Automatic annotation (TrEMBL):
<feature type="active site" description="Proton donor">
    <location>
        <position position="114"/>
    </location>
</feature>
<dbReference type="Pfam" id="PF00275">
    <property type="entry name" value="EPSP_synthase"/>
</dbReference>
<dbReference type="InterPro" id="IPR005750">
    <property type="entry name" value="UDP_GlcNAc_COvinyl_MurA"/>
</dbReference>
<comment type="function">
    <text>Cell wall formation. Adds enolpyruvyl to UDP-N-acetylglucosamine.</text>
</comment>
<feature type="domain" description="Enolpyruvate transferase">
    <location>
        <begin position="5"/>
        <end position="406"/>
    </location>
</feature>
<comment type="pathway">
    <text>Cell wall biogenesis; peptidoglycan biosynthesis.</text>
</comment>
<keyword id="KW-0133">Cell shape</keyword>
<dbReference type="InterPro" id="IPR050068">
    <property type="entry name" value="MurA_subfamily"/>
</dbReference>
<keyword id="KW-0963">Cytoplasm</keyword>
<feature type="binding site">
    <location>
        <position position="305"/>
    </location>
    <ligand>
        <name>UDP-N-acetyl-alpha-D-glucosamine</name>
    </ligand>
</feature>
<dbReference type="GO" id="GO:0008760">
    <property type="term" value="F:UDP-N-acetylglucosamine 1-carboxyvinyltransferase activity"/>
</dbReference>
<keyword id="KW-0670">Pyruvate</keyword>
<comment type="similarity">
    <text>Belongs to the EPSP synthase family. MurA subfamily.</text>
</comment>
<keyword id="KW-0131">Cell cycle</keyword>
<feature type="modified residue" description="2-(S-cysteinyl)pyruvic acid O-phosphothioketal">
    <location>
        <position position="114"/>
    </location>
</feature>
<protein>
    <recommendedName>
        <fullName>UDP-N-acetylglucosamine 1-carboxyvinyltransferase</fullName>
        <ecNumber>2.5.1.7</ecNumber>
    </recommendedName>
</protein>
<feature type="binding site">
    <location>
        <position position="90"/>
    </location>
    <ligand>
        <name>UDP-N-acetyl-alpha-D-glucosamine</name>
    </ligand>
</feature>
Length: 420
């Protein structure tokens, strides 16, 4: 559990790690390469380690030196991913695309990840079927094979710009026969990062970062040395940590253009976000936090992965804010925990109305998912008294040394073994 003594100001600077969601997709992409890959700026996270275990189970050799991963995918010995690990993270499913493209066969259990909605994989499956794959879901496992061992380029329209489906299909198409066009593709920076990684191995991809992505299949991809982009959600979490504790903070290793919706909304609450050096952002806090509305949307809209943290900030704003979650159908579970801390929030469907209060009070709370955990940490930093957060396994999936980074900034928080 995490014990937080609230109401301390933060100060100084913090280094943002590599992006979890980029690193995980790119690790899946390593399956496409029949040589070795070096990945830099890979965060040391439970999810990344789990993805590493999946790759190792397929025969890929993996070594970590600090934030660099060396992966040798010359020999893939099997196309079957282990249930025990796949069931724990969403991104593990994305290997179905590269496995099918490389081996012509894949058996991947239905994935896990944060419990924030039903999270089906129908868009991934339909796209692979459009590329000629035969797919059957039996006993919780997606079995897919490509006749004659090769996927075929296709025109694919996604009903929703799913990040994972765009990534799965883009990877699959890099080694398919002919051209693939993905319409209504996700435009997230992590999709662009994955495309850049694939291009660095010789893939032919155009349009990543727009709604239409073209991929011309090649017969083989080669070795690469690639640096993962900084984590925009970790950066956003630290910006909100500064805003909620009314502290000035400098963030290093951030790409400001990936944070446009968040910065705009932070400025509506009265904070100032200033671009300093290359890849640096400084937050100057508001004297009083002003209420504002947010609605989560696919990129470049406000990120669903920042909704919980931003809601924590709005609990202390002057006035009423409306938070609308449109991406996932069950991503407001942090509301009940914030209420324990004195927040005044009413929920109707996918909308939360937050009536700002002058002060939160520390309380024992339960972290229900990754970003909900981060929101509770932020609320605990601002609250009066002690907050105790249970169930840290979610936090460790997605934040590299969050409490150590916060301690360096002056926060008073410690991790403790659970006392039974
Ligand atoms: C590992 C990773 O990168 N995770 C991110 C990724 O998740 P993930 O790739 O799972 O998110 P998607 O963009 O696919 O999901 C968005 C919506 O589409 C629905 N959907 C998705 C696929 C599908 O086949 N059918 C379907 O209906 C989902 O249930 C959800 O309601 O993007 C999300 C949206 O930005 C982020 O919150 C996650 O942090
Ligand atoms: C929802 C998230 O992760 P995952 O898709 O891995 O569950 C997240 O990073 O906020």
């Amino acid at each position: 559990m995490l014990r937080i003594e609230g109401r301390s100001r933060l100060s100084g600077q913090v280094q943002i790690s590599g992006a979890k969601n980029s690193a995980l997709a790119i690790m899946a992409g390593v399956v496409l390469c029949s040589q070795t890959c070096r990945l830099r700026n890979v965060p040391n996270l439970v999810d990344v380690n789990r993805m590493g275990q999946i790759l190792e189970s397929l025969g890929i050799q993996l070594q970590r030196h600090g934030s660099t991963l060396e992966l040798d995918a010359t020999h893939i010995t099997q196309g079957q991913a282990p249930y025990e690990v796949v069931s724990q993270l969403r991104a593990s499913f994305f290997i179905i695309g590269p496995l099918l493209a490389r081996l012509g066969t894949a058996q991947v259990p239905l994935p896990g990840g944060c419990a924030i909605g039903a999270r089906p994989v129908d868009l991934h499956v339909r796209g692979l079927q459009a590329m000629g794959a035969h797919v059957q879901i039996e006993h919780g496992v997606v079995n897919a094979y490509a006749p004659q061992g090769k996927l075929k380029g296709a025109k694919i329209y996604l009903d929703y710009p799913s990040v994972g489906a765009t990534e799965t299909l883009m990877m699959a198409a890099t080694l398919a026969e002919g051209e693939t066009c993905i319409e209504n593709a996700a435009q997230e920076p992590e999709v662009i990062d994955l495309a850049n990684f694939c291009r660095s191995m010789g893939a032919r991809i155009k349009g990543a970062g727009t709604k239409t992505i073209w991929i011309e299949g090649v017969s083989q991809l080669h070795s690469t040395d690639y640096e993962v982009i900084p984590d925009r959600i970790e950066a956003g979490t630290f910006l909100v940590a500064a805003a909620i504790t009314q502290s000035e903070l400098l963030l290093n290793n951030v790409i400001a253009s990936h944070l446009i919706p968040l910065i705009a909304k932070l400025e509506e609450t009265g904070a100032k976000v200033i671009k300093e050096g290359e890849r640096q952002l400084r937050l100057l806090p508001a004297e009083r936090i002003v209420a504002t509305d947010i609605e989560t949307l696919p990129y470049p809209g406000f990120p669903t992965d920042m909704q919980a943290q931003f809601m924590a900030l709005l609990t202390l704003a002057e006035g009423n804010s409306m938070v609308t979650e449109t991406v996932f159908e069950n991503r407001l579970r942090h509301v009940a925990e914030l209420q324990r801390m004195g927040a005044n929030i009413r929920v109707k469907g996918n909308i939360a109305i937050v009536k700002g209060v002058p002060l939160l009070s520390g309380a024992p709370v339960l972290a229900t998912d990754l970003r909900a955990s981060a929101a509770l940490v932020l609320a605990g930093l601002a609250a009066e008294g002690t907050t105790i957060i249970q169930d840290l396994q979610h936090l460790d999936r997605g934040y590299e040394q969050l409490e150590v980074k916060l301690q360096h900034l002056g926060a008073r928080l410690t991790r403790q073994e659970k006392v039974s």
